[in-house]
Amino acid sequence: MRKNRWAGRVIKNCKKRGEWAELVFAMRAIELGLRLGRPWGESSGYDFTVDQGSRIVRVQVKSTISRQGKGYWCTLKDSKGPYKKRSFAFVAAYVIPEDVWFIIPEKIVRGMWGVGLYPKLESAKYREYQEAWHRLRGETPGVIARIEACVEEYVPEGT
What we know:
The protein is of the alpha+beta class. It has a single domain (about 5-135), classed as Trna Endonuclease, Chain: A, domain 1. Helix content is about 15%, strand content about 25%. The strands form three sheets. Strands 1-2-3-8-9 form a five-stranded mixed β-sheet. The protein has a three-stranded antiparallel β-sheet with strand order 4-5-10, with no helix packed on it. It has a two-stranded antiparallel ribbon with strand order 6-7. Strand 4 and strand 5 form a beta hairpin. The model has no long low-confidence stretch (mean pLDDT about 85).
């Protein structure tokens, strides 16, 4: 169990709690070896960039402490409503009381006001995105992207 498990719960101001969640995201991403960038100001439609080597993807960080039955409701909008198409590539949604991240592609949540996240439910709709940090690396589990090898030619002695 991480030491910060309940830390965000005591931050009453939503804006400050969101800023704290962004710091938690950065810490976790760096621990996992991701290369992060940060846009200047708050006018971008995303909070971080992740350098995948061949491309850079944008990430919007969201967090929740809002219970919904056996799960949590995470709002996915800005002050004008649902995010515009392609504002970011992934949303990183942090369920603070469970210390669990969901890394969800933008196309899955496009136009939605929010999502129900159920970290303890095996059959949950967004289960495949729970702790799916490999998506930010551009990796697909079980698929080998490229194999590199080096072969030296055998030359018998005396030739």
